[in-house]
Amino acid sequence: MQPYSPERRTALVLCGTGAHGAYHAGVLRALQEAGVKIDVMAGQGVGAGAAALAAIDGAARLWEPDGVWRSPRSPRGPRLYPWKWPLRVAAWLALVLAAACVAPLLFTPSARPVVIVWLPAAVAGTLVVVLLAGVAEARWRAPARRRVAGPSWWRIVGAPLDASSARALFLRTITQLIPGRRYADALADNLGQPGFRELMIVATDLDSRRDVLAVLLRDPYRRDVLAPRPDRERRSEVLDLTGIGRDQGLELLAAALTPPVVCDPHLVTFAPDSYWRGETHRLCDRPGAVSRLLEELAGAGVTQAIVVSAVPGPSSPHRLRALRLDPRQRLGEFLAAAEVAALRDAMEMARLRFDSVYLIRPTHNPVGPFDVAGAYDEASDRRQDLLEVMERAYEDAYRQFIEPVVGASGDQLAQVVPPDADIAAGPSASDTG
Is 366 helix (H, G, I), strand (E, B) or coil? Predict the structure, then answer.
């Protein structure tokens, strides 16, 4: 591997899900303050949201006081991937009905026959009303519809978590930065200006069974990525945000922010003049998509890559911890394990494709993908929140990359900030780049 050089074409690759985006925020702040040159922002999962913001000089909106991960409106962290409201309402109603039925049985023995008669009807009626309301709400909110097979109540039960909050959070932040403008136009018009960077994000198309990338690159790298390849229909897997796919950039971002299986896939309607001729496909995230990003970045002329992951590496002996029973936490553990395995394979291949490749990751992180309110850390016997995740990411970026790699290369840092600096003191969005 060759030494780091700011003269090389460099990509920053962000991968992860949900709350792990707070780690991306800390690393981005450190790299920005140190003046590390980034040519291409690339992202998978929640990293796609951070990449899309950083590409338009908006990385500071991730960590500033009213930003994505520090909003004062939500002291317990941003509300990402909650249970769907019909399931929450059904759970609360079940508790209320259970309490209402138990009380007469305990204090009024004569009411027992009446309770036994109307209890099943009350429970069944409540669940029917909640499920019908959920189906109606799902149909009303969806921008496009796809025919489904099977009972309609699987629309609620089959995907218990709601990804619309996460999608709305990032899309709202982006539109605040470029009010009244199309994202692709704003980025293309300012490409080459300080703070604006090329972009590549990825999601998985469940209908075509392939990864789909949204790219906005400058020539000649744009032509290289879009060029025909043997046995590959590039028009079906690459959306050029300066061409036909210019209206699908934010749609693909929304799909990348949608975890698989546990959330309904995001429906994307392709342009009538695109390869898919106006079809509506189901898209979502894929934990192993980081390998596809690195493959495409190598084809886009990138020779130096910095990969960021909030998941620690493989565990050593005697590191077992208590099992977490919440289904969301179980899914989070699976996604984290899948990311570790995918990242290991991707880094092995990346060393063959790039002159230099670097990995920034924590040695320990108790916060899982869905722990937006923080998590209890058994190792330190205390609770950690997303602010601490950002602070640790800031320190990791300095300790693992900026000081040993950038500093050792002889490149003069634009501004060296001690690792223990207050993370809230970051520059505003207008100072990025």
Answer: coil
Helix 290-299 to helix 327-353 angle (10° resolution) is: 30
**What angle separates helix 386-397 from helix 21-33, to the nearest 10 degrees?**
40
E-strand ranges in 206-292 read 210-216, 238-240, 266-269, 280-284
Residue range 26-47, pLDDT digits in tens: 999 999 999 999 999 999 999 9
Task: Give the C-alpha distances (Å, rounded to integers) separating 250 from 245, 297, 330.
Answer: 10, 20, 29
Which stretches of 72-165 are assigned E, i.e. beta strand? none
Q: Enter the pTM of the model.
A: 0.85
Q: What one-letter code names the amino acid at 207? A: D
Please tell me the distance from the alpha carbon of residue 240 to that of residue 248, in angstroms, as a whole number. Answer: 9
User: What are the strands, taking DSSP E only, across 228-319?
Assistant: 238-240, 266-269, 280-284, 304-309
Give the pLDDT confidence of 89-138 residue by residue, as tens digits: 777 776 776 666 666 655 565 555 555 555 666 666 666 666 666 555 55
Distance CA 249, CA 264 (A): 19
